[in-house]
Write a structure and sequence with these properties.
two-stranded antiparallel sheet; about 0% strand; mainly alpha; Isoprenoid_synthase_dom_sf; transferase; 2 strands; Polyprenyl_synt; about 350 residues
Length: about 350
């Protein structure tokens, strides 16, 4: 991206982080929890910690840039939409980390492991409180829209967008788990559908729709192309995550590599590994796959096999290919929407991919 675009992204991030912190500062007073409850403020503090602990806020960026497709004037409702988007993301992180039994997220403990530390002798309570923390974040993501003060018709449309996004994400989580029960590696059609439902629809499509709605645009009139753009970005994003899980830098990511290998997940990386290895190399990969005690040395050996067999190079090339398709879709928006914002959506896919290198 150009320096001008990167500066705009950074400004969105800084402004939203302040907004998010202010939201949590006042949230406790609005929940009307019983005065004796110690667990409720503790839950809010854990949600706050996770929510404010890093992240590039690209969903917020997409939201603002989608509004700029229509108008460069200040738009009422963007703050509420941004809070809703990131609260839904917090919900997803809490539940993802529980499903994956992840200990760390964004360089700190996950909500689940924080509760496990608080209640070492009560594993069911730790599990239940984690589920409820994620559920609370989901409910808050809808409540913030209902309390936004926008016209009723706009609020209704925004709640519908977020409800559909959440529903699609839950379906995506279900089929993501189902995928790993299949015999053999899944084909790309399955992997793409999982990426679309699990991440693209709430991380890309919903911010696009919400941004257009708040600015007076008509997302339904452009549903097909918005969905195609979101799907392509979602594929790039999921492929990037899967790539980094084996070929990434642990220090930069704030979490260990090899998680997908240890859990036996049929990710893009694993599918591509299995398509090229044979003999002794395949034995190494298959012995590691689904082995929770797989050592860092074994993960490093699988990584070396993947690099030697061209899996890392292939995945980078595929990500660039999908990014180019997304760029072309965005380029088709130029006749109807503002040039500066269209340019952002053209630059975004390749920039996202290059960060994976």
């Amino acid at each position: 991206m150009t320096e001008q675009l990167l500066d705009r992204v950074a400004r969105y991030e800084r402004r939203f982080n302040t907004l998010f912190a202010e939201y949590f500062d006042t949230l406790g007073a609005t929940l009307q929890a019983p005065s004796f409850s110690r667990f409720t403020p503790d839950c809010l503090e854990l949600l706050r910690d996770l929510s404010l602990r890093g992240g590039k806020r690209m969903r917020v960026v997409l939201l603002h840039e989608a509004a700029r497709l229509v108008s460069d004037d200040p738009v009422d409702g963007l703050d509420a939409a941004a809070l809703s988007i990131e609260l839904l993301q917090t919900h997803g992180l809490v539940h993802d980390d529980l499903i994956d039994d992840s200990a760390t997220r964004r360089g700190g403990p996950t909500t689940y492991y924080a509760y496990r530390e608080r209640f070492p002798g009560h594993p069911r309570a730790a599990l239940g409180l984690t589920v409820l923390a994620g559920d609370l974040a989901l409910a808050l993501s809808l409540r913030v829209l209902l309390e936004s003060g926008l016209p009723a018709e706009t609020r209704q449309a925004m709640v519908e967008v977020q409800t559909r996004a959440a529903t699609d994400t839950f379906v995506g989580q279900i089929v993501d788990l189902e995928r790993d029960f299949a015999t053999g590696a899944p084909d790309d059609a399955v992997l793409h559908d999982v990426a679309d439902h699990k991440s693209a629809r709430y991380s890309v499509l919903a911010p696009l729709q919400l941004g257009l709605l708040t600015a007076g645009g008509q997302p339904d009139a452009h549903d097909t192309e918005l969905r195609r753009y979101a799907r392509l970005i979602g594929i790039c994003g999921q492929m990037r995550d899967d790539y980094l899980d084996l070929f990434g830098d642990e220090a930069a990511m704030g979490k260990p590599t090899g998680t997908d290998i240890r859990e036996g997940r049929h990710s893009y990386t694993v599918a591509r590994l299995l398509s090229v290895v044979s003999g002794a190399e395949r034995a190494v990969v298959e012995e590691a796959l689904g082995n929770p005690t797989c050592t860092p040395r074994t993960v490093a050996a699988v990584r070396e096999i993947g690099e030697r067999r061209g899996v890392a190079d292939r995945m980078r090339a595929e990500m660039r290919g999908y990014a180019e398709q997304a760029r072309l879709v965005a380029g088709g928006w130029r006749p109807r929407w503002r040039e500066e914002a269209v340019s952002f959506f053209e630059h975004l896919p390749r920039w996202s991919v290059e960060r994976a290198g």
